Amino acid sequence: MTCDHCGKQVPDAVFCTNCGAHQGLADHGIAAQERPHHFAAHPGEHVAQPSIFTTLFPHLGQRKLQEFRWALLLGFALVVVLTATGLITAAVLVSVFLVPTLYVVYLYEAEVYRKEPALVLGATLGGGIVLGIAVTIISERVIGGSLGSTGLPIVSYGVILPVIQLIVMPIPALLLRVLPQFGSTIDGLVFGVTAGLGFALAEGLVGYWSILTYPPLQPVSADWIYPITSLALLIPLLHGSTAGAVAATLWRPSRTGSGRWIALFGVPIVLVAVVAFYAGGLILDNHGVGQLIVLFYQTALALLVVLYIRQLVHHSLLEEGLGQEYRPIVCPYCHHHVMAAGFCPSCGVALSASPRRETGLLTAPVGAQAEPEGQ
Ligand SMILES: [Zn+2]
Ligand SMILES: [Zn+2]
Known about the structure:
This protein is mainly α. It has 2 domains: 1-35 and 323-365, no CATH class; 61-320, no CATH class. It has helices spanning 30-34, 52-56, 62-84, 88-110, 117-150, 153-168, 171-174, 185-207, 209-212, 225-251, 260-286, 291-320, 356-359, and strands spanning 327-330, 337-340. Helix 8 (185-207) runs antiparallel to helix 10 (225-251) and helix 11 (260-286) packs antiparallel against helix 12. The longest helix is centred in the middle third of the chain and has 34 residues, at 117-150. It is elongated and about 70 Å long. Mean pLDDT is 85; it is low at 362-375. Bound molecules: zinc ion (ZN) (2 copies). One zinc ion (ZN) binds at residues 3, 5-6, 8, 10, 16, 18-19, 21.
């Protein structure tokens, strides 16, 4: 049949394998083409569903996602047990390494780095760690020194430092943009998240350095649970998603198409979210608002960034998946045996958002053809 949206001859199926449009909604124009009910990296979800895992780990299939969710849950349960028993040093160490470690496992699972694991990990995670150490130490000297005593802490800790972090964090990821094999927006997202997590790891280690030298067993105190939760989950979520959002926004190869308006809002949304996260958190704290409320408030702001990333990733995957070659695959999402180009014809998943080895999609710059396999 001929697809109404891209005009190509494609097999009769629920989704167009060439452009990803929802053929079942042929009458609905934009809705069929943009298919908001079927997120391109995870078609079982709406694009506007605030799901953290399917956004920041976009290459994982259902089963793998579940494994990663369990790993994070168990890791955090360990952190809570360590905190509750007064083993604060151990709790801090597990918290700092928990999410970055999971993400490195994910990078290996998805093979986002193609054939360059050392280069990609060194640049993104390593670069993020180095910058995190430098920025955190310098800012502690400057803000904790002269500026802190005279200036307003809300301005320095709530606005200036977060903005500096936001500018610095995506830099190591953006250096990889020059390599032709990493042309997809989703590569930029994943590299940005990795750099942000490296930064979060370094910031956590530097910030809690003095605690690491305490005796291992501390008096048990319920007050620890909030800073530890923030250290283990909230700050990695914020740094990972903001650095990923900025990197992906600047990564986009085409500044045209349906995603251009979304990309335009990227940096302003992230900037507002980050300042509201830190400055708002400090203001709420100063007014004696409970720490649990502050935690919810800050999580909501991080989720706003996640929602932006989903819109950007969705439109980028739909645009960049065009023009791939047909090949027989087992869909990594719905497990059907299909002949597919850029999208699975039965579930509509963008095949560039799948682990490389499962789909034979080795290179995915816009408009380029997939590398022929077995030749
Ligand atoms: Zn089509
Ligand atoms: Zn499928």
